[in-house]
Amino acid sequence: MKKPLTLIIDDEPDIRELLEITLNRMNIQTLCAEDIASAKKLLAEQAFDLCLTDMKLPDGNGLDLVDYIQNNRPPIPCAVITAHGSMDIAIKAMKKGAFDFLSKPVDLTVLRQLVNNALKLSTPKQIKKERRTRHILLGDSQLMRDVRTKIEKVARSQAPVYISGESGSGKELIAKLIHQQSPRNEAPFIAINCGAIPAELMESEFFGHKKGSFTGAATDKEGLFQAADGGTLFLDEVADLPLALQVKLLRAIQEKKIRPVGGQQEIATNVRLLSATHKDLNSMVEKGEFRQDLYYRINVIDLVSPPLRTRAVDIPQLAEHLLARLAANNNQQQPSLSEEAINGLKHYHFPGNVRELENILERALALYDGNIIKLDDLNLPCSTELPQAEKFNPSEMSLEDYLEGIEKEALSKALEENRWNKTETAKHLGLTFRSLRYRLKKLGLD
Question: Structure pTM?
Answer without folding.
Answer: 0.76
